[in-house]
Amino acid sequence: KQWYQRRVREKSKNKTVFLPEKEYKCTNSTACFNMDTITWEPVYTEGFEDALPRSRAGHASAVVNSRLYIISGRDGYHRAYNNQTCFKDMWFLETDKPPIPNRVQLIRASTSTLEICWIPVVTADAYLLQIQRLDNSDVNEWYDVAVVKGNSLVVSHHHSKPSSEEVDENKPIERLELSPGTTYRFRIAAINACGRGEFSEPAAFKTCVPGFPGAPSSIRISKGNDGAHLAWDPPANSNGNISEYSVYLAIKNSQSTESPSSLAFVLVYRGDSPSCTVKTTSLQNAHVDQTNKPAIIFRIAAKNEKGYGPATQVRWLQDTKTSSNKRPVDKMSEMADQRRLFLT
Question: CB–CB of 263/320 below 8 Å?
Fold first, then answer.
């Protein structure tokens, strides 16, 4: 089914002028709704007219994943048959809780904040973000940070009561600020009209230590004929002059696991320029992480007069169909699963 804006023919000064009206009418054409671009795309049916379903004038529905999409049709009662109005409304009905989100990713860190983001879940209306302080003796307790509508947040504090305890609505909720040089774990759950889904795998990030530079940000990776081209922005908080950068590549190791903390890394660049090229010969020895989607892992850190600060860890997503070319498959490959770690 497809809708076209009606045009009224009006004769003026020996010529015909088409004026658009604010209504739509049904046609006998067939179109496909693109869920990524939210647009109708024409379907070319030349030679296949008899084998394809015909267009509809009434309401229609379709199930995509866990959503039931309902498309409005012809009004059908106050106009003549040849001039009935079609509506372009489309609604959806949730039929299940959202799936488990991917792990939280880190955009940048400071001494008192952690800016994080995550890949949106299509069927989510909001997200519940929780935090856990790793150097806390009560390590098993999670604390609520916020219910977020978007897919990013600058975290500077969290609730003082564990999420497992009931909150007294008559008492104000106390908040605890993030501490410098402290490691925190984050997890997130998607929420929609059917309820809250399962939590994601935890991801650990560390706030910066005063005096050391922050972590490089806005990592950009592109595929070239000679290898992978990396570029990044200097730390927002350099705490002095940045003298050099170091880039590390996760390599194949028979004893390593998929856990980032147990991977083996090798230095592939050290210099004062905020960009470098990792040769194809080095990429051939890279470890391909299979945690979510196949990816090559880099770590990038900056150094000032006091020493190296935390490193940004970035996963460069790989196309499974052309894995030998090490080519990224989407724009999230430049920042997916970024996290800060301290290099020694």
Answer: no
pTM beyond 0.90: the answer is no
282, 269 contact by CB (below 8 A): no
Question: 192-215 burial, b for 16+ CB within 10 Å, e for fewer?
Answer: beeebbebbebbbbbbbbeebbbb
What is the mean pLDDT of the segment spanning 196-225?
89
> What pairs with residue 317 in β-bridges?
295
Confidence band, pLDDT 50/70/90 cuts, at residue 127: very high
Q: What is the rounded distance in angstroms from the CA atom of residue 142 to the CA atom of residue 160?
A: 10
Q: Which residue has better confidence, 34 or 139?
A: 34
In contact, 105 and 121? CB cutoff 8 Å: no
65-113 pLDDT, tens digit each: 788 887 776 555 445 555 555 566 777 888 899 999 988 888 778 888 9
Given a cut of 50, whether residue 207 has pLDDT beyond it is yes
